[in-house]
């Protein structure tokens, strides 16, 4: 009886303090409409909350944040609320009772609310999850890997353990969404073989994915970016997902996809066209600095004149509210847009100056490059930049960071480095890869040029460092035993030092390792060779052989890169007809899919080799195609725009002169009158005396009417009996291959066309000076 009396008051007290509803607590949480209601329930029930209810409360708090736009999110207010601390304390005491999914979800949510990785709760949750790791199902494992990635633990033993679990269970994984998260998380520490297994698995599961899963497709592209693998079959399929969901993509998603495509150098005309339309519709919707900057960066480089003007005006209006990072993003976009808006440049630069002390070395380099490109002059800013770069340099010990700092310093108006800094460079050279060595060389050469010009002196230390750079560059090439490792280092190399000091040794190394050329790396190697202008017949023959043997594994998007060195260097491999025929046949089904720019460059490249596939040419010289090309020309920078127009003109001329049977009209008269007048010509009579310039002349920019005759003659203006037309072309070293006096494709085609027009061509070689 006494026991019952003791229980009754306690029961009443419990009943009195419970929520004013008999509804289960989790149901009440699910019915809450804001954070305060959740916190009210926590405060009234904190002594009774179970691990499930703790997990539910945190889930609801995060759900409310996800429903808000960036301008009204209140993460800090929630994190600092006393009842949020109560939830964290309860999570600490109850994590041992949580299910696997609740445990990882709690970790994920508290990280989203900005709880630091060194917080005791985060550490305890990670430790508990590690203990259970082997029993996690794929969805829980993927979320946990994402939590570790958010803590920058990409190279940790724990992430390595997750990679091992994925590798052991890959065959049984059927959920592409979870797999895509894991692929991104473990991408930094897996072997090339494992990378290929993941790519194949993702491709296998792609058809099981709902076509609306944009985030899954984006993560697959992110994985390919992380492992630096431009795998066209997956990129193409992901691109189709983005295109089919364009109306549902927000600014943040579009910005991420554009950034990934840029990193992978993957070009999709359809995506850019639809993206431009979608982003243009968003211009009136944003008035918050963060969103406006993101829109400026994404839309600016592809926008038309009116949109650019509107975007710049918006940024100017809110420039006072921009953070240092936002100003940096705007400056980068202005560089890409080739903007010369002096008012905006001055305003953004003043913000950069104000935040200069807060930027990292790589950001200081970006600022220096942008200011140089935009021709901005400010002695005060450049002096401060130099001070900051030198202060970083004095304490830096990482070769890649030192190379960045030295490169930025060499771009400043006073590109001088003293002996102490030169000694610092010299000390790290043995640790450098070819990429860093190339950056150091470019920097030292700039400093030598500056000292010679302004100080009338070249310190011996600089010349000594240059010799050391040559030594370590050659040593690294000679010791290289893997084509893939070599390729990672040389694929972005350019500049005078590389061309003069390392190019020949690089080609020798490529020849030594060329048995490792395969369908995966063949396009990259070919593209590199075309940039070097170095004719190695053995390498080009190997490329042609690999293509013929493995064409079914090579994506049509890669064909242009493969053909380019043969065109540039004017070289026909053995079985050239079979090689080019195989490439074109592989492309035919993709002619309607490839970007207009790619088709123009492809047609031009083949024309230099006297190869004129009819299907390709009829696709290009078509009203609908040319309209699509005009649309794409509006989206690209002025320099590339002009290059494309020149290539189309040269292709048009080649087809008219060499394939009159295709009956493709010449339509570049006006373009040539405006841009093209470089032929020096004269007419000699039968006694070899010059005749007056007149209607007898028919140059490459003004083609006569042509028709096909038995000997493919040109029906044009007639010359006096015995007269001869002479075309004198002056060539410098750029018209020839770098290593041998072999005429490159463009100059060879020009000579051929002049001869078709009836000229006797004299090509005179002049010095570069």
From TrEMBL:
Annotated GO biological process: mitochondrial RNA processing; regulation of mitochondrial mRNA stability
Keywords noted in UniProt: Mitochondrion
UniProt keyword Mitochondrion present: yes
Cellular compartments annotated: Mitochondrion
GO MF term list: RNA binding
Mitochondrion keyword on record: yes
CC terms in the record's Gene Ontology section: mitochondrial matrix; ribonucleoprotein granule
Domain RAP: start-end pairs: 726-769
Protein name (Swiss-Prot/TrEMBL): RAP domain-containing protein
Native species: Capra hircus (Goat)
């Amino acid at each position: 009886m006494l026991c019952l009396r003791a229980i009754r008051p306690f029961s009443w007290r419990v009943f009195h303090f419970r929520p004013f509803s008999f509804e289960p607590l989790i149901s009440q949480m699910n019915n809450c409409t804001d954070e305060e209601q959740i916190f009210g329930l926590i405060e009234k029930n904190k002594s009774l909350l179970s691990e499930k209810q703790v997990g539910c409360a945190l889930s609801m708090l995060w759900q409310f944040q996800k429903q808000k736009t960036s301008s009204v999110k209140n993460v800090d207010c929630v994190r600092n609320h006393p009842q949020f601390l109560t939830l964290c304390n309860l999570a600490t005491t109850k994590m041992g009772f949580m299910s696997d999914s609740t445990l990882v979800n709690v970790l994920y949510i508290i990280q989203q609310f900005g709880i630091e990785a060194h917080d005791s709760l985060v550490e305890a949750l990670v430790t508990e999850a590690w203990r259970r790791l082997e029993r996690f199902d794929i969805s829980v494992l993927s979320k946990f890997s994402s939590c570790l990635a958010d803590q920058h633990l990409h190279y940790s033993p724990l992430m390595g353990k997750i990679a091992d679990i994925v590798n052991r269970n890959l065959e049984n994984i059927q959920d592409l969404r979870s797999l895509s998260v894991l692929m991104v998380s473990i991408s930094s520490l897996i072997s090339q073989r494992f990378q290929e297994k993941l790519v194949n698995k993702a491709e296998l599961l792609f058809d099981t994915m709902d076509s609306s899963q944009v985030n899954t497709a984006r993560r697959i592209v992110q994985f390919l970016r992380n492992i630096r693998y431009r795998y066209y079959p997956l990129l193409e399929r992901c691109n189709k997902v983005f295109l089919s969901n364009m109306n549902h993509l927000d600014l943040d998603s579009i910005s991420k996809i554009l950034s990934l495509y840029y990193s992978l150098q993957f070009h999709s005309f359809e995506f850019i066209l639809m993206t431009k339309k979608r982003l243009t519709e968003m211009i009136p919707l944003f008035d918050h600095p963060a969103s406006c900057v993101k829109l400026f960066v994404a839309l600016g480089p592809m926008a038309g004149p009116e949109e650019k003007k509107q975007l710049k005006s918006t940024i100017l209006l809110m420039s006072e509210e921009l953070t240092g990072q936002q100003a940096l993003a705007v400056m980068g976009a202005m560089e890409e847009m080739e903007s010369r808006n002096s008012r905006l440049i001055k305003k953004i630069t003043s913000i950069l100056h104000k935040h200069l002390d807060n930027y990292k070395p790589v950001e200081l380099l970006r600022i220096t490059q942008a200011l140089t490109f935009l021709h901005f002059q400010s002695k005060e800013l450049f002096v401060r930049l130099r001070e900051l770069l030198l202060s970083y340099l004095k304490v830096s010990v990482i070769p890649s960071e030192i190379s960045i700092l030295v490169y930025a310093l060499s771009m400043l108006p006073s590109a001088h480095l003293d002996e102490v800094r030169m000694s610092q460079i010299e000390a790290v050279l043995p640790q450098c890869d070819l990429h860093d060595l190339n950056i150091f060389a470019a920097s030292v050469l700039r400093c030598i040029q500056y000292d010679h010009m302004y100080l009338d002196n070249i310190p011996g230390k600089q010349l000594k460092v240059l010799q050391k750079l040559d030594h370590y560059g050659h040593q690294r090439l000679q010791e290289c035993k893997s084509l893939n490792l070599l390729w990672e280092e040389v694929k972005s190399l350019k500049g005078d030092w590389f061309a003069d000091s390392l190019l020949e040794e690089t080609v020798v190394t490529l020849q030594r390792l060329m048995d490792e050329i395969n369908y995966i790396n063949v396009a990259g190697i070919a593209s590199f060779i075309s940039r070097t202008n170095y004719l190695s017949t053995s390498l080009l023959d190997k490329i042609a052989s690999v293509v013929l043997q493995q064409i079914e594994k090579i994506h049509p998007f890669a064909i242009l890169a493969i053909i380019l060195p043969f065109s540039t260097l004017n070289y026909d491999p053995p079985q050239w007809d079979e090689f080019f025929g195989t490439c074109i046949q592989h492309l035919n089904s993709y002619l309607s899919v490839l970007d207009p720019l790619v088709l123009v460059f492809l047609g031009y490249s083949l024309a230099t080799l006297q190869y004129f596939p009819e299907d390709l040419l009829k696709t290009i010289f078509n009203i609908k195609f040319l309209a699509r090309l005009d649309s794409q020309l509006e989206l690209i920078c002025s320099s590339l725009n002009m290059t494309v127009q020149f290539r189309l003109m040269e292709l048009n001329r080649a087809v008219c002169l060499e394939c009159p049977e295709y009956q493709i009209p010449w339509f570049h008269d006006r373009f040539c009158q405006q841009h093209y007048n470089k032929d020096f010509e004269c007419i000699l009579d039968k006694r070899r005396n010059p005749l007056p310039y007149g209607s007898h002349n028919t140059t490459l920019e003004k083609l006569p009417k042509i028709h096909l005759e038995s000997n493919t003659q040109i029906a044009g203006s007639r010359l006096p009996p015995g007269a001869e037309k002479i075309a004198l072309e002056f060539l410098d070293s750029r018209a020839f291959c770098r290593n041998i006096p072999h005429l490159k494709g463009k100059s060879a085609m020009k000579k051929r066309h002049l001869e078709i027009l009836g000229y006797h061509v004299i090509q005179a070689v002049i010095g570069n000076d």
